[in-house]
Design a protein that fits this description.
By secondary structure, the chain is an alpha+beta fold. Helices cover 50% and strands 22% of the residues. α4 packs across α5 and α8 crosses α9. It is globular, with a radius of gyration of 18 Å.
């Protein structure tokens, strides 16, 4: 049993107000796990068994294409993440999840999540809204990535999370932006951004 952190309680309640019974259930089933820098949280081919909430740190989601890593997303503090396709289908994950810095996550096992969803209408509504929010975020990101230049996308990411972005290796940031690391170096030099 853990004490549900205030930030997680606030985040979930802002999505959908949970009952006292829901919080007791979560406190009983949530797990706090700490990972080292560059530690794999989920390997390719593993089946996802958790939904995570990043308490502290920085995480990247990536896949491979033609023997090179392609960064799909960065997870910043107080965001939910998972290999959602694998979690939903219970098929092996086609992406890998790795920390970029020492990180602490709060995670909910799939079995507990299913039990909670079956026994609580508010849990079902919360999870539906979390999925809807994640989908909206993903679509907005895709629109930005397709309609803006790499420089504009870099500046937006820097404005959203300036302290964290500086901790992302150039090769990962370039991969995320869909450009070569040398191009990102030129963008950073030209804009005088970190």
């Amino acid at each position: 049993m853990i004490t549900v952190p205030a930030w997680l309680e606030e985040m979930l309640n802002s999505t959908y107000e949970l009952s006292q019974e829901d919080w007791i259930f979560l406190a009983t089933h949530l797990q706090r796990v700490t990972f080292k820098k560059k530690e794999i949280i989920l390997e390719y081919g593993q089946m996802e068994q958790y939904i995570y909430f990043l308490e502290k740190g920085l995480v990247r989601l990536f896949t491979e294409k033609n023997d090179r890593e392609v960064c799909l997303d960065f997870i910043f503090e107080k965001q939910a993440f998972s290999s959602f396709i694998s979690l939903s289908t219970q098929k092996p994950s086609t992406l890998c999840i790795q920390t970029l810095v020492p990180s602490t996550v709060i995670r909910l096992p799939l079995g507990a999540m299913r039990q909670w969803l079956e026994g609580s209408d508010s849990a079902e509504r919360l999870v539906r809204r979390l999925i809807e929010n994640r989908l909206v975020d993903k679509l907005q990101k895709e629109i930005k990535m397709l309609t803006m230049t790499a420089e504009e996308n870099y500046e937006n990411l820097l404005n959203e999370s300036p302290n964290i972005v500086q901790q992302i290796p150039i090769k990962d940031m370039a991969s995320y932006l869909g450009i070569h690391p040398d191009s990102l170096s030129r963008i950073r030099k030209r804009t005088m951004l970190p």
